[in-house]
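Working notes for the structural subgroup meeting. M.R. asked for a predicted model of this chain before we commit to crystallization trials. I am recording the input and output together here so anyone reviewing the notebook later can reproduce the run.

Input as submitted:
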Amino acid sequence: MLELAILGFLYDAALHGYELRKRISALTGHVRPVAESTLYPAIKRLERGGLLARETQPGTGAAPRHVLSLTPAGRQELRKRLAEPAQGDISDENRWFTLLAFLRHLDDETAQAAVLRRRLAFLEEPASFFYDGERPLRAEELDDPFRRGILTIARATSQAELTWLRATLTSLGGSGR
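Returned structure, recorded in C-alpha cell form:
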C-alpha cells in the first residue's frame, strides 16, 4: 500500500520526498507510520521500475531537493492497481482506505463501481471477530462488555459504509442493491 500511496500522491503533483512522506503519514500514519527506511527504498524500486522520475532542483538551503513525479508508465500502473486490487486491499480496512483515497484517479466510472461492488460484497458477508464454532457471534450474545463494544462499533461503522457504498454506486449508475 505504500507504493500505491506514493503513486497516488504523485499523480496530482510532483513532490519532494519530505512532502511525500508528510502526506502519506497524514493518510496512514496513525496506523502505519512511514519511516524513511521504508519510504526511500520503495521510491527507489518505483524509480528502477520506470514508474517515477527524479529531478534535482535547488533547495531553500544549501542542499538540492529531489522532486519526484510520475512517468506515463507510473500513471498507467496506478490505474491498474486501482482497477485490479488484491482481495486483501478490499478486506483490510486500512488498505481499503488507502485504495479509496486514490480511486478517483481511475477515470472509468464502471471500473470504479466494480471496485466498490467488491467491497460491498465483502461487507455483506456475515462475519464477526468472535465465533461459536463456525457461527459468527453477535454483540448481544457476548457477556464481555469490551468484546461487545468491538462488535457494536464494527457494526455501526459497517452500516455507515454500506449506506455510503450503496449511494455512491447508485450515483455512478451501478446497482446500489
